[in-house]
């Protein structure tokens, strides 16, 4: 009898003892599903690239960023979609079932539209942690708790039923997750059978709060921000600097199936990749902001945590906001009522208080920080240091401060940057950054920079009378600016 063994021409032993030892604990049925998806992705990439021969690219060591999810996953990239999505066999089949290239590129979201987890009052998502040390377990719990505290989604550790099986792939393990609730898998005979659990991998290099949050976002049903239907208005892809077999990692979704709920594109989304992700040569970007948005280039790829719009999107996706429709608390500055406690608001970054009407007081190593500044007709100087040079970077915490710089109604604020000192990182400013929110819609993440060469001697003008200046630091971030009425 012909089985999937012969169809795939695949040796389980070869996989187990290969460099991809991250899969060593997978069951035989999982291994068949894994290899089935790998072959479907290969077929899809061949069709989309127009090339028949797959040649794995191995970048030089100076072209690898150990904080980049796609770079961490390079050894297993041919098993993953968009760099870190662990497709089910049915999702992989959908990529190849479209009638044309354009359909395959633009309509795959329909296969995942019913992948939300239960949303009724009894719906709780079980998860388990496997192979992690004590500190890493607590870090992962914090990430699950972050989503639970700000949405109507609920989690329980070691609960019964279909669960997210979070496992540690070791020092070489990857960062990847299934996309949404996985209902079926494929066994060794090619049959679709109910899935009892789904995997979320966090190797040693993945154990940072923002990376864990990103992968949980996939498990809850989130695609990448740069997959949005409106992506081309905000992001360009430098295909010359991307492996032809990896260009499909920048697929976009059809507008009719793009469940973004009318929310604006956010360069600071936790689901947005950085400019050098999937780049053949990291001296040149793989993706870049389009004309008029260039100041967001270092905002892309941040891994501090979900943006305000990420949290709002998750609440809309899981239909949480109706729980507070009768709340007496009206949130200011486009915040929204927290479905876990409707008497409190979730605020855009820089705002705080019960109703988002005041400045967030910040947390600079245990002390409040930041202030309200009034712009005048003349330049005023300002400098500040966030964090400490002696502060050893943690994986789960960053110091942060906010400043509100205001002009009179109808006027605008101009900021001139003298100096920004911190670890220079062109891929999401992973360690530290200074953020300038100059746009009219202050829900969006602002321009972020982490070192002098990115921003020194630049000047920014706000779209309205309020500009928000913020600084984030895993160790130390210094800033020196001048400001006045524009």
UniProtKB/TrEMBL annotation:
Superkingdom of this protein's organism: Eukaryota
Record Pfam families: Astacin (PF01400)
Residues that bind Zn(2+): 214, 218, 224
Alphabetical UniProt keywords: Disulfide bond, EGF-like domain, Glycoprotein, Hydrolase, Metal-binding, Metalloprotease, Protease, Secreted, Signal, Zinc
GO BP, one annotated term: proteolysis
Cofactor(s) needed: Zn(2+)
Secretion signal, residue range per the UniProt entry: 1-18
Organism: Steinernema carpocapsae (Entomopathogenic nematode)
Keyword Disulfide bond in record: yes
Keyword Glycoprotein tagged: yes
Protein name: Zinc metalloproteinase
Places the protein is found: Secreted
Location of the Peptidase M12A domain: 103-325
Co-factor binding comment: Binds 1 zinc ion per subunit.
Residue intervals of the CUB domain: 369-486
Active site: 215
Listed GO CC annotations: extracellular region
Main location: secreted
